Amino acid sequence: MMSVNNGGMRTGQDTAPNGTARASWERTNTMSNPSTPTKHLKSPKPQNAITIAVSSRVLFNMDKEQQIYEQKGMEEYLKYQIEHETEPFGPGPAFPFVKALEAVNTRLRELYPESEELFDVVLMTNNHAHVGLRLINTINHHRLFIERFCMTGGNSPIGYLKAYHTNLYLSADPMKVREALEEGIAAATMFNPPEKRTEVSETQLRVAFDGDAVLFSDESERIYKAHGLDKFFEHEKAHENTLLDHGPLKGFLESLGKLQKKFYAKGQRMDCPIRTYLVTARSAASSGTRALKTLRSWGLDTDEALFLAGAPKGPMLEKIRPHIFFDDQMFHVEGAAELGTVAAHVPYGVAQKRPQKKLAEENAKDSSAAAK
Question: Could you give the residue numbers annotated as active site?
């Protein structure tokens, strides 16, 4: 099991089961004790829930099975899955994130027993139905609450994502992620977890976002790529009172904020099990005003905002310990992963139109101050 003592705002409560922290500790102990009986929970209606669709390859470690499929073909792959269907898959990169979603749901059900404003995780896979038994066995083994499956047999999941009112789609297939983004669905590509993964909180969901081309549009980044840093600063100064357009993950942040307010309404702002972060390479004084004003105009904010002025994001993320970090540029994703953070790539905006190697060279050349 992951350690509950992970730093952050609730460290003292997570480690000391006494006083006001006792209820929090008892909730954690109950959730992490496999012998604790649990009543059957009811899935919320899709139109009421915050739906997180995850592919089987990001929820679980299916590297060996994927290798069999690529090297030996579909029939051998299906044969192997059936022969090993009583053997559970190990956790994949999205596994701690999904566990944290369930921890938030536990708290919400305590405060609002009749509410359906909950996270609802849907397993979205292009696997054949024959693989379903092994997936079900794995979900039961790990004590996950996932009742909705879509096994599409190789067909595109996009139609199903829309039917479930999906708020976020996580997949290992970049083509499917791009297809989802083109249809207006928040999506990101996940990769194998870092070899030395940073331990994350079991009681507080932590989500970190990049700014431009993730929460916001890529308008400002286009200026930077086309005209350089000085023109970017000039543009931001001249337009600091002009709101940025929304990016692909704005809606997901909005959903997180909506749930946060349910905890605030019960006097639990300081004990909220959701915490959000803006982690951007923008400079605060020269280009941060517009970003913060845009968030405020949307009625949104992040619990913490880090303006790094071009400094690497990895060391800051190592301290934050998010369950997931979203960025549109692969060198930021890779830099985060090198220091143990599970990062997801959002293939959106102007950064996708240049080779990643060239982007990395540009970033290194101007690391003292970047557009994001």
Answer: 210
